[in-house]
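Format is sequence with structure; example below:
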Amino acid sequence: MPFTKSGIKVLFVVLMFFCFSNAQETKYGARLGLGMSTVSFDDKTNYYSNESIDGVTIEGAFGVLMPMASVFSFHPELAFQFVDMDNEDSNNDYYYGYEEPIVTASGINLLINPLFRISFFRFFFDLGPSFNWSINSKWDVEDTDIAEVNRKFAYGFLGGFGFKFSRHWEIDGRFVFWTNPYEETDDYMSSSLMSTLVFSGNYWF
């Protein structure tokens, strides 16, 4: 297997060595962002003409920036995400002679993003995995007896690009996707993919 326990331990020790060797340069910050999320799902019932929902996303996060080398930093982040999505704007009023129901999904998610930052002059890139847990999530299908869809743990990848205005202030845009953030409770959904595009303002203390 590519990731063994011993390999993870070695990676952890190396990261901690670089981080603590630059402890005096470590920064702590907060981020607030606004964007859009989309969930695409595979509808096994063939009931929908548009197998996706989208809506507003608000994110708040606390992060640490620990230099590892001249242009590389370790940037772990703990974030809370609020999403409110539906298919009301994109669905057809009638589908095969029947009125298509409204699908809504909303909730609060906990995100853990162990990112790596590459800095170049005043620009930077953030790259790394993203782990997504639901704190409170709800999925409803209007006026149908289709089983509810449960929220579960999801993992994915994050990529971002930003600009530093000063030592304290910066802005960034980031795109992240997670695989199978929703699962079926019956024969309704076989797979799903959630993506989020967020633009944020960051402040480093």
User: Anything to note?
Assistant: The two ends are 41 Å apart (CA to CA). The chain has a mean pLDDT of 78.
